[in-house]
Amino acid sequence: MNVASGNTKVGFIGLGIMGQAMAGHILDAGYELHVYNRTRSKAQDLIDGGAIWHDTAGDVAAASDVIITIVGYPKDVEDTYLAAGGILDRAKSGSVFIDMTTSSPTLAAEIAEKAARKGIASLDAPVSGGDVGAKAGKLSIMVGGSEDAFKAVRPLLELMGENIVYHGGAGAGQHTKMCNQIAIAATMLAMSESLAYAKASGLDTRRVLSSIGTGAASSFLLNVLGPRILDGDYAPGFYIHHFIKDMSIAIAEAERMKLDLPALALAKKLYDKVAADGYGEEGTQAIFRAYDN
């Protein structure tokens, strides 16, 4: 497949915080872009810019050569791809699926197997980088599935991401994203506990961040989300309820592999509490609420 902008029709399904920006990069590059989202208003800026609206995900698939999805939960992925009249039913042979949702590795393998029977390649390509990375086109993209399909659509992925790595067969991208989320979960707790300690000890918390943010503790979470916490800014770059979903997937996969991950289990317990307190629509940095008494 030649994915030059002049001859490739791209479908994009799921226009949330990240999806809008990701689809915008594709549209800006000159591709014919077909879009669907459950809430049409979230697609309006893209439509105004020349994107073609469709009333169903299946309609997008029928009109596109490459179909990209980034929806909410594994059940949303399953319904979008496998339900009657959905993407798999309507897509034509020779097209390529790219699911960029953080979802189940097992489901990714199932979609790839069923797609292959129709002559369709399917990639699982979850991303990391949040709203900041999506807007800048600098996401980290972790890819599993057909290596030939990956090579064919890489120019599209490069419009959305900067660090793009192929990890192996179907499901490998999702497994890699689980590694990412496990690392974030533990680091979020460590960062929050560090700031809670600084605050309790009477230190100037911003000065603490400026000091430890360039040493061994340096991280995106500390240097980007840390200041947001100190500002009381819990606006979502990535929703808590979506992160709980990701941790649940990782825990289930770890249990299947008979792997004990106590830090992940603790992080999920604390995030569950923050969500139960009414903060599930806030950003992941709102875990600090569990420590800010």
Task: Explain what you see.
The termini are far apart. α8 (147-160) links the parallel β8 and β9. 52% of the residues lie in helices and 14% in strands. With 293 residues, the chain is an alpha/beta fold. The protein has helices spanning 19-28, 44-48, 57-63, 74-82, 87-90, 105-117, 130-136, 147-160, 172-200, 205-212, 220-230, 240-256, 262-279; strands spanning 9-13, 32-36, 52-53, 66-69, 96-99, 121-124, 127-128, 139-145, 161-168. It has two domains: 9-170, NAD(P)-binding Rossmann-like Domain (Rossmann fold), CATH 3.40.50.720; 176-290, N-(1-d-carboxylethyl)-l-norvaline Dehydrogenase, domain 2 (Orthogonal Bundle). GO terms for molecular function: NAD binding; NADP binding; oxidoreductase activity. One of its GO terms (biological process) is organic acid catabolic process. Belongs to the HIBADH-related family.
Describe the protein's topology.
Elements: E1 9-13, H1 19-28, E2 32-36, H2 44-48, E3 52-53, H3 57-63, E4 66-69, H4 74-82, H5 87-90, E5 96-99, H6 105-117, E6 121-124, E7 127-128, H7 130-136, E8 139-145, H8 147-160, E9 161-168, H9 172-200, H10 205-212, H11 220-230, H12 240-256, H13 262-279
Parallel strand pairs: 1-2, 1-4, 2-3, 4-5, 5-6, 8-9
Antiparallel strand pairs: 6-8, 7-8
